[in-house]
Amino acid sequence: MDNFLNIAIDSCFMASDKPRPIIIAILAILYFIVGILGIIAGILVITGGVALDQISEGEGLIELGAGAGAVIIVLSLISLIIAGGFWNGWKIMWYIGVIFTIISLIGGIASIFVGGFIGIIPLIIDIIILWYLFRPNVKAFFGV
Question: Of 124, 100, 130, 102, nearest to 112 (Cα)?
């Protein structure tokens, strides 16, 4: 049983020995930057909620700021994990990358109807990322 568990973990998280595609490296760096900036933003939202609560004399903005800041920080930590997985070629991150890109693609389609034609830009970016993740050399890097 222990050997089976080790094989399962290695197949999901083992770093690839193949050369890293340049666009995967760029995506990993971008996910890392977004993660770091998101953590900073989450901390600022939490502290902003505290400050606004002091100004508004206890209108409950501490809870709102803490909740929103915590969500931002958790999503930012996920972004950092994805960055590490993309950089190291973890097999499971290819699947997570595809899932997150599809979710973002759906959001991009919805934003076209809600926010206007400018929503086409993230939609095009998501389509390109999804296409790239299915390239043979990228799938080979992730071991998919």
Answer: 124
